[in-house]
Design goal:
mainly alpha; 16 helices
């Protein structure tokens, strides 16, 4: 048994405790205007990252050591599996991928808060509370329904090994880039909520996180392209895109984040689209959570989704809570989100920007409905109906050309 692997479960518990403490301290520090409490909350975010990194190191050590006493190691590695794919097994299964996601989230959070604090940002405490709350949710998943440190009563002589389809160079780079893009959008989302909570709703919140937005958008875009190449070579689909539900899960956050990149420029230049931009960033974050739910709940059949599990129930509750919270904050701050200028003409560049956003939102709505249509049809007609690539292409190609 790997001695480092034994530290995994306690490290996850410690990370959860630090995340809860960080959320509480940041909130209390802002509410009471106590800078010392807010600073302690930010330090707790750093401690959350340290504990999560220890947990990830513990799982990685168990994988490399082929410690088959762990159920996760036995399920995704074997003695004959090459080292690069043994490392890739860290995100090859549901539990490991959630741990890797949380590692990125806590690491990005610590870096973003440290950078913002160096600039004396007024959003640091509230953003810290939001990021710590998001981290606490994922750490709760790792502690209760999806622990990668579950032990086996009987230790097998060898493991099952990684799925042969996943033993590809694309597997080493594709998922980490997707997760980087998904998690990267959490930073501007946290600062958007911080702006709503603090009442400072000028363009400072997205100017401070512009690099994070571009970083997340770029990583997600590259990850999607690499995923298309992997599907072309490994799955033999005869093309780079087949409108698989897991592909769509990665595509939808991109369709929500791209309009934000455009309309944020108009808010910065002319003070327009304030409500729209906050909504778009909340929607982008919700799409990253929905995509994670879609691939890990097993509710929709896909060639490369994870097995069906009870984890989907946790995601549904979390998404409902976050949607209600975002909507309530936007409604609460509507008086402060009034535009300073209006669109002058239907022939203006401002209107073209808005039209472009509407088209992208239409594409997002179409992909969302078509992807979830098996669930919708089952609920309405008690009959599961799937939508094929031909239907997607019939509508999406014209919209894409526009």
């Amino acid at each position: 048994m790997s001695w480092l692997g034994a530290l995994g479960a306690p490290a996850v518990a410690a990370a959860l405790a630090f995340a809860v403490a960080a959320a509480g301290l940041c909130t209390a520090g802002t509410a009471a205007r106590r800078r010392d409490l807010a600073e302690a909350g930010v330090r707790a975010v750093h401690a959350t990252f340290a504990a999560t990194a220890l947990a990830a190191a513990a799982l990685l050590a168990a994988l490399v050591a082929r410690d088959f006493s762990f159920e996760y190691v036995a399920a995704y590695t074997s003695r004959s599996l090459p080292l690069p794919y043994t490392v890739a097994a860290l995100w090859g299964g549901m539990e490991g991928s959630l741990l890797f996601w949380t590692l990125l989230l806590t690491g990005f959070s610590a870096l973003a808060l440290r950078t913002a604090r160096a600039r004396s940002s007024r959003y640091v405490a509230w953003a810290g509370a939001v990021l710590a709350g998001v981290a606490a949710f994922f750490l709760l998943l790792l502690l209760v329904p999806a622990s990668p440190f579950t032990r086996l009563a009987t230790v097998p002589a060898d493991g099952s090994g990684l799925n042969p389809l996943l033993q590809s160079p694309g597997m080493v780079a594709h998922p980490p880039l997707l997760y980087t893009g998904f998690v990267g959008f959490s930073i501007p989302f946290a600062f958007a909520l911080a702006a709503l909570l603090s009442g400072h709703l000028d363009d400072a919140w997205f100017v401070q996180t512009r690099r994070w937005t571009l970083f997340a958008w770029s990583a997600l875009s590259i990850g999607i392209v690499l995923g298309g190449a992997w599907a072309y070579t490994e799955l033999g689909w005869g093309g780079y895109w087949a409108w698989d539900p897991v592909e769509n899960a990665a595509f939808m956050p991109l369709l929500a984040g791209t309009p934000f990149l455009h309309s944020a420029m108009l808010q910065e230049r002319r003070g327009m689209f304030k409500v729209w931009n906050v909504f778009l960033m909340c929607l982008t974050f919700m799409m990253t959570i929905f995509g994670t739910f879609l691939t890990r709940s097993g509710m929709i059949a896909s060639v490369h989704s994870f097995a069906r599990s009870s984890i989907g129930e946790y995601f549904v509750v979390y998404m409902v809570i976050m949607a209600i919270a975002c909507a309530a904050l936007i409604v609460w701050r509507l008086p402060l989100l009034r535009a300073e200028h209006r669109i002058d003409s239907l022939l203006s560049r401002d209107f073209v920007f808005l039209l472009n956003n509407w088209i992208l939102m239409g594409m997002l709505f179409f992909v969302l409905v078509a992807t979830t249509w098996p669930l919708i049809s089952e609920a309405l007609r008690d009959q599961t109906v799937t939508v094929g690539p031909g239907f997607y292409n019939k509508w999406m190609v014209p919209l894409g050309l526009v």
